[in-house]
Structure prediction request, 466 residues.
Amino acid sequence: MRYISTRGQAPVRDFAGVLLAGLAEDGGLFMPESWPQLSAADWRALRGLPYPELAARVIHPFMAESLSFETLLRLTRESYAGFAHPAIVPMIQLGPDVWTMELFHGPTLAFKDMAMQLLGRLFDHVLAERDQRVTIVGATSGDTGSAAIEACAGRDRIDIVILHPDGRTSEVQRRQMTTVQAQNVHNLAVAGNFDDCQDLVKAMFNDAPFRTEMRLSAVNSINWARILGQIPYYVAAALALGAPDREIDFAVPTGNFGNVLAAYAAYRMGLPIRRLVVASNRNDILSRFLASNDMSVRGVEPSLSPSMDIQVSSNFERLLFELQGRDGALTARTMTEFRTIGRMTVAPQAWQTATELFQGFRLDDTDIIVAIRALRAATGYLADPHSIIGIEAARALHTPGTPMVAMATAHPAKFPDAMEQATGARPPLPAHLADLYERAETFTRVPADLATIEACVRATVLRNAA
Ligand SMILES: *Cc1c(COP(=O)(O)O)cnc(C)c1O
Prediction:
């Protein structure tokens, strides 16, 4: 498989190149040159496979030139071996035609582990073949940083340095990062806010000599391999509920549009998906676009589902590229204009195509609390403030006779305050994290100063290269 940029101006790359590069040179995002097609018989042959094997079979066509099937299978097995549920992605029925699939049984209790665990291992494998190392740097307000640290800890070829705003993440989130004891992990607590951290990371990438010397790399949500790691669970859900002989709908709690884009990829590969509900909180730019072909940026408002508090969904560019007939020049123009004026509309035909598959849904904080409480009363099921938005969407928008599966993206124990507000109780952490509050923390407090932080990164890298 070869990969092209959504902006049409970057050299074509193979999977390994796309994995290591992250963003394309022209500022675009990588997309496969074509979508692998599975026939009804191919889908049927995947029924009943253990999840790691299903995953390897579904995504191998995207990387066949870079990795053998046997190698990929070893990596998917290792990636999901540490999950706390033997089904890896268990499904629960919550009503007639309404299901939820739990994607949060990985080490950090959020769905990002599904892709990140595989990404860390893919990096390590490709780097070993090239006899290279990389340094991953990133800024986090919580979830992504911990998933990246868990995925990279102990990997031979990777150093990882994560900046978080000192005192401004929740205690669970901080401890999930700072209690990982590994030589190649360095947590920096920056005296500043999340924007300061993000600016410092950008400044490191813009410091070309430093970037080259340290071989900086990123594992943020625009990396194509993260989308790949999220395709197989849509396949698993659909097969379990009767695909390819029956259609299926999904409702996906959405922020950067990565998770729902993976569902779109499964659709393009021939999985009979009928409808994809893009579920948002009060930050509903995508729902507004789907309702009225108007994507206007407004300020981010904090909500009870912080991992979905976004202003601009970075992966939407991939769908835009598809909607605009894979015209890179047009996509580049549309994105540049969007960045300049903060508003995007697409041609009526393209918007129409989008709304035939995608539908928006929005739930604000008050309704999130009410819905968590009501679901608990009706079914005994505890959903976190992200997952509940998908579940409410599924309850409201499913059509009788077609199952709709709501993707559950976080464990309720990750958001104890909201859960207490809704149900009166703080959910206990699962067994593998039960001692999180007793574990020793390791991190370095630093000022929001580029030279100091670059010195910390260099020290980590030199220590581990020795
Ligand atoms: C990251 C995240 C989301 C949003 O996923 P995207 O792929 O960014 O759309 C939703 N819920 C939780 C818990 C998350 O961590």
Residues 110-112, 143, 221, 253-259, 307-308, 386, 409-410 surround pyridoxal-5'-phosphate (CB under 6 Å).
